[in-house]
């Protein structure tokens, strides 16, 4: 698929899956979408391995935008991007945006064929800073 | 085997012992990895309690999970040249910890492995440690004074650079962790609490000091 992919990373698998459901409601299958949540051992947290897997699943040559909830999700997502390495890493951006609103807005933008930069900018508009 | 100057050479303030094998002592890396995992396991509940006070309460369990995964491969990792041992430890922590401590402690070890030589003297260790601290600061978008592990790492680096003995460095690390108690957290979950983060020790600073003590003891035993 040529549309930008969306990855949702929450500390809670329930939040991640629920957010993905809301994205699907807006864009159906027009956007590559994957989510992950939890520390991989049944607890709250985020897993670098799971994030790398989600990026693979939502991979698009147009790039992937990652929406995260709290700090650890951001740090682990940045680590995952670094471990995936170039050339793909330059096409993956961790967004500074609220996870639910950001994911829905970014995916809606992506479904219209917007570039990764446009998709990320749409998500960033939701953040005050 | 990790070659480090023994305690006596560490005590030689301002002078770095280089290339003189008579001043170097060998450290059993496999034993050190096991000792580090033991230390984290022994203190897991304490670390969790510290993190529960001002964070999400997963630090002890997460660190224990990571270091148990490292322990499981202690012999394999220890058989590698020191830089590769450190990188392998870092990568394992990144993949298994399951919280922000994974990338942070993982980056510390990975960056240290990238910068250190196979048989480091004090000067190389100090330089490599400084670069590793920069990498951790970048990963956490943090700096010294924000009630994080950096508040222990930086004083340890300065003590290394300043010619302190191993015993002094271990005490400096403990004191530095203690010094995070009155700080206000500016990074991580604890920062959500604002002023209420004051009066509690940072869990990451504590685990960092514990690891410094473990390494210090291993050097002391091999000296």
From TrEMBL, chain A:
It comes from the Bacteria. PROSITE patterns: PTS_EIIA_TYPE_4. It catalyses: dihydroxyacetone + phosphoenolpyruvate = dihydroxyacetone phosphate + pyruvate. InterPro entries: DhaM, DhaM_N, PTS_EIIA_man-typ, PTS_EIIA_man-typ_sf. Keywords: Kinase, Transferase. Residues 3-129 form the PTS EIIA type-4 domain. This is phosphoenolpyruvate--glycerone phosphotransferase. It comes from Mesorhizobium tianshanense.
């Amino acid at each position: 698929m040529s549309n930008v992919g969306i990855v949702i990373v929450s500390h809670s698998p329930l939040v991640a899956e629920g957010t993905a459901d809301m994205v699907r409601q807006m864009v159906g299958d027009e956007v590559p979408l994957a989510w992950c949540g939890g520390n991989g051992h049944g607890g709250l947290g985020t897993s670098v391995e799971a994030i790398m897997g989600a990026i693979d699943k939502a991979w698009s040559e147009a790039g992937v935008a990652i929406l995260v909830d709290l700090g650890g999700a951001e740090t682990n997502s940045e680590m995952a991007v670094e471990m995936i390495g170039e050339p793909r890493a330059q096409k993956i951006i961790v967004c500074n945006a609220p996870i639910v609103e950001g994911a829905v807005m970014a995916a809606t933008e992506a479904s219209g064929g917007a570039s990764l930069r446009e998709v990320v900018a749409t998500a960033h508009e939701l953040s005050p800073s | 085997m990790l070659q480090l100057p023994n305690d006596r050479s560490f005590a030689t303030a301002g002078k770095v012992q280089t290339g003189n094998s008579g001043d170097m002592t060998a450290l059993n890396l496999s034993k050190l990895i096991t000792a580090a995992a033991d230390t984290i396991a022994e203190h897991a509940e304490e670390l969790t309690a510290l993190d529960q006070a001002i964070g999400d309460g997963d630090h002890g369990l997460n660190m224990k999970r990571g270091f148990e995964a490292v322990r499981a491969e202690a012999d394999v990792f220890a058989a590698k040249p020191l830089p590769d041992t450190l990188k392998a430890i870092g990568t394992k922590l990144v993949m298994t910890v399951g919280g922000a401590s994974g990338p942070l402690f993982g980056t510390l070890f990975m960056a240290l492995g990238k910068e250190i030589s196979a048989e480091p003297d004090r000067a190389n260790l100090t330089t490599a440690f400084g670069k590793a601290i920069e990498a951790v600061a970048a990963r956490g978008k943090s700096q010294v004074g924000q009630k994080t592990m950096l508040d222990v790492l930086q004083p340890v680096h300065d003590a290394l650079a300043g010619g302190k003995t191993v015993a002094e460095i271990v005490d400096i690390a403990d004191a530095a962790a203690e010094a995070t108690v009155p700080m206000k957290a500016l990074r991580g979950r604890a920062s959500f609490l604002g002023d209420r983060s004051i009066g509690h020790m940072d869990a990451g600073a504590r685990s960092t000091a514990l690891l410094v003590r473990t390494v210090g003891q291993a050097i002391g035993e091999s000296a």
